[in-house]
Request: fold
Amino acid sequence: MSEESVPQQGGTGQPKGLLQQMEELMAALNADLSALDADLQASGDTDRRSGEEEQVG
Reply:
């Protein structure tokens, strides 16, 4: 398991609560999904444009 996937402890040296860990993981997941969605939308727009050009010609 890599260090990135292991939740880090707070600055006080005390372990984070489960709720705080879950909130941080959900925020990271949402950011990843948003980036993936943007990539898919961009590639989908490119595919649609090339498909329309082929049908016209």
